[in-house]
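lol ok so funny story. i was supposed to be doing the assay writeup but got distracted and ended up predicting the structure for this chain instead. priorities right. anyway since i did it might as well share w the group, maybe its usefull for someone
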Amino acid sequence: MHSAKSRTSANEKKRNFTETVEAHVMLGVDPRRGDQMVRGAITLPHGTGKTVRVAVFAEGPSAEEARAAGADVVGGDELIEEIRKGGGKLSFDKCIATPMFMPRLSKVARILGPRGLMPNPKLGSVTNDVSGAVKAAKSGRVDFKIDKTAIVHVGLGKINFSEESL
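and the output, tada:
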């Protein structure tokens, strides 16, 4: 990582944005086989450098927990209707849901799914512990999954992070 960052800073052009440092790792597995799928999540110690807006589908005490944990958008059926009628405009980057909301989310699966926002129990975004999930999402949790060419792509941080932070 040290040599890569020093090489890029030597050839640095002026950019109008802060570049993301990414890792692309080719694995020796066959992604077509179900037992060789690589998928998971990791919380980066210094975050990703992005501010993440989190939406939580919950009602009652779980909704209050989510608001206290710092969720940007909290709602139930009214949030689902807002997404359906919004024409695809979303004001959040990650979705978390309680298990009781999963059947109701099928109404907006066509909107959330292609954007990678549909809550998934395998990734921990369908949980009863909404406060823990919101804090993890806000603190730099990164989901990763192998693609069809057996490569895992993960963003690690921003180019302006110190070498120790990366």
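The CA atoms of residues 10 and 17 lie 18 Å apart. Strands lie at 20-26, 39-43, 54-57, 73-75, 94-97, 141-145, 151-158.
back to the writeup now i swear
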